[in-house]
Design goal:
With about 375 residues, this protein is mainly beta. The chain folds into three domains: about 35 residues; about 110 residues, Sandwich (Immunoglobulin-like), CATH 2.60.40; about 140 residues, Sandwich (Jelly Rolls). Helices cover about 5% and strands about 35% of the residues. It has two helices and 22 strands. The strands form seven sheets. It has a five-stranded mixed β-sheet, with no helix packed on it. A four-stranded antiparallel β-sheet has the order 7-6-8-9, with no helix packed on it. A four-stranded antiparallel β-sheet has the order 14-22-17-20, with no helix packed on it. The longest helix has 19 residues.
Length: about 375
């Protein structure tokens, strides 16, 4: 379309010829913008809306759309309804967003990347959409943040804020890494993402991995078969030569180990550390400690469940010897986070030291 120079028509000072020329020029200038994607009724009104030709600049390309006809719009069946006519922010293609019927209807929300064109007020009795039912919603200026769309290889410099969601494309970190939310330490190198907040999977926050530099005993369990000594933690009874369950508070286990209260309900196993030590002084006697573990309810026999053993014996001169064992082992647990222990002491070693520590859990 050719252009004209805008001169404000003014009948009080313009000659007749100037006035007509200035009106034509003003209309030409205004129509170059105002006519783009203008909505109106069809030549013979029906249940579609005509959208005039228009120009759209997106993704570095100027797109010119010819006149378009919307999809056929159906009348509501119970209450009035407001539909919206929009165009795609990249292609200019027209589409209809159908609203909800209501006694006092409201216009439906815009879809991502849509540019508003018009609202259509529909009654149950509507059989043809006329100009009186159409409200022009076109905006000459709009926020790029609302309609910008990254759908190919794009280079972004500086800080960008995305109000909506990024989808369907890979993000290249240009060899330095991606950082979100001004995290401590900034970019961490190619292929990395440094996030100040949490990472979520369908609403569930994912736990960040931690570096383990050593074992940490969350709480010791004293395993004692003597039956009369004082335990260093508050189990209901001591583990002895019979299977006894161990679990967190409220688990219903025979022995409550409060260290397990921190274990999440989704855990399927524990990582435990056993320390056994036995010393004796009776000539020719072998002193032994054996620890067995299994998942509560598994029915596993002791022959298949040994996790730690310590042996000590004395020689003929009566010199005492020390037997020790340290074992880190995984153990399956039931849905109540319980497992069973079976502990045997033979030879009545003195002193006898045995403890169990929680190292971690498995999910």
């Amino acid at each position: 379309m050719t252009v004209s120079t805008f001169n404000q028509p003014d009948y009080t000072v313009d000659t007749a010829t100037e006035y007509k020329t200035n009106i034509d020029a003003a209309v030409a200038v205004v129509s170059n913008v105002a006519a783009d994607f203008a909505p109106h009724e069809a030549a013979t009104p029906n249940m579609t809306v005509l959208i005039d030709a228009g120009k759209l600049y997106a993704d570095g390309t100027l797109t010119e759309q010819t006149q378009q006809t919307s999809a056929t719009i159906t009348a509501p069946t119970t209450n009035p309804r407001i539909d919206r006519i929009v165009i795609d922010g990249s292609t200019g293609a027209v589409s209809v967003i159908t609203g909800a019927e209501a006694a006092s209807p409201t216009a439906p929300a815009f879809t991502d990347g849509a540019i508003p064109i018009a609202q259509i007020l529909l009654a149950i009795s509507t059989t043809a959409i006329t100009d009186s039912l159409i409200t022009d919603e076109r905006a000459l200026f709009f926020s790029v943040a609302d309609y910008a769309k990254i759908d190919a290889a794009e280079t972004i410099t500086g800080d960008w804020t995305f109000a909506g969601a990024l989808s369907g494309q890979d993000i290249s970190d240009n060899g330095v890494g991606v950082q979100i939310g001004s995290p401590t330490g900034g970019a961490k190198g190619a292929g990395t993402v440094n996030i100040a907040g949490g990472v979520y999977d369908n609403g569930t926050q994912l736990a960040a991995p931690t570096t383990v530099t050593g074992y940490y005993s969350a709480q010791n369990i004293t395993i004692d078969n003597a039956g009369g000594s004082t335990a260093s933690f508050s189990l209901g009874s001591y583990i002895g030569a019979a299977w006894e369950s161990v679990g967190p508070t409220g688990s219903g286990a025979a022995n409550i180990w409060t260290a397990l209260d921190a274990v999440p309900s989704t855990a399927t196993g524990l990582l435990l550390k056993a320390y056994l030590s036995a010393t004796g002084s009776t000539n020719g006697t072998t002193y032994q400690q054996l620890l067995y573990a299994r998942r509560t309810g598994s029915g596993l026999a002791t022959s298949n469940s040994t996790v730690a053993a310590a042996n000590a014996f004395t020689n003929r001169s009566g010199a005492s010897q020390l037997g020790q064992a340290v074992s880190v082992f995984p153990i399956a647990i039931d849905s109540s986070l319980r497992f069973d222990l079976y502990f045997i002491i033979s030879g009545s070693p003195s002193p006898s030291i045995s403890s169990l520590s929680l190292v971690g859990w498995i999910e």
